[in-house]
Amino acid sequence: MYGADLAEIFELIHRGRGKNYLSEAHEVTRRVRMHKPAAASLLDVACGTGSHLTAFATLFDHVEGLEISEPFMRAAKAAVPQAVLHLGDMRDFDLGRSFDAISCMFGSIGYLATTRELTATLTRFAHHLVPGGVVAIDPWWFLETYTDGYVSGSVIEVDGTTISRVSHSKLEGNASRMDVHYIVADSVQGARHFTENHLITLFTRAQYEKAFAAAGFTVEYIEGLHAGRGLFVGVRD
User: Which of 30, 122, 138, 219 is the most buried (most CB within 10 A)?
Assistant: First the structure.
C-alpha cells in the first residue's frame, strides 16, 4: 500500500485527471472558518505527497502533516519544505501540541478497520485540537452508497510520461478491496507495470456520526463534495 512506485507518479496521475487541490483546500478552509473564524494552524493527517498541504500552507499561518508511508513522506518533504512533517499512524500519534483545525483528505479515514478504531482515531484528533477546534474529513464511500464491482480506467500523459491506470473494486465483508494496475512508460526507462492493493472500510454514515459524537464532536455532513463522497465537519465540544 502506497509504496515507492506509486509515490513517484501519484501527483502526475491526479494532475492529469484534473484534481484541484487548491479548490478543495479553499472549501475546507471556508468550512473550518465558518466555525472558527480565526483558525490559524492546521494539521493534515494522512498528508500523502503533500499536495493538499501545499495548498493549506497558503491559507494558514502554520501547517503540519502526518503520514504513515515513508515514500510518500519523502515526497511531501520535497513538496512542502516549510512544513513540519511527522511520520506516524493516525490511530496513535501524539505530537505534544494542539491545532485550530485538522484535515484528513482523499478517503484516508477508510483505512481504519473497525468502528472502535474510528472512534479512537477521532478521539486522537480531538486531543490535538484546541477547544472549539474543527476537524474536516473527506470520507471513503459509505456502505450504502458503494458500487460493488466498480471499474475505473484512464490514460494520462504528463511531462513526457504516459500512465495507464485501471482499478477494480469488490465488496469484501464491510470493506472494499480495490486492486489497481499501473503501466508507466517514458522514453528513457521504457514501460513498467506494478499493482497496488487496498482494503478500505465502508463505514455507514450513521457509524461515522456515532464515532464523532463519542469522540466529543458536534458534526455535520455536507453532501456532494469530493467526487460525491461528501465532507464531515466536526467541532470539538
Answer: 122
Domain residue ranges in the chain: 4-142+203-236, 151-201
Task: With H, G, I as helix, E, B as strand and everything else as coil, classify residue 63.
Answer: strand
Query: With contact defined as beta carbons under 8 Å apart, do 230 and 204 qualify?
Result: no
Torsion of CA 65, 95, 237, 141, to 10 degrees: 40
Which pLDDT band, with edges at 50, 70 and 90, does 159 fall under? Answer: confident
- Residue 177's nearest CA partner among 113, 119, 118 is 113
d(CA 214, CA 45): 20
Residue 151: strand, helix, or coil = strand
- Write the burial class of residue 213 (CB in 10 Å: 0-12 exposed, 13-18 middle, 19+ buried): middle
pLDDT tens column, 121-156? 999 999 999 999 999 999 999 999 999 999 999 999
216: its cell numbers? 466529543
Which amino acid, 227? Answer: A
212 near 126, Cβ under 8 Å? no
Any idea which architecture 151-201 has in CATH? Single Sheet (2.20)
Neighbours of 173 (CB within 10 A): 9
CATH of 4-142+203-236, one of 1.10.1040.10, 3.30.2290.10, 3.40.50.150, 3.40.50.261: 3.40.50.150
**pTM of the entire structure?**
0.94
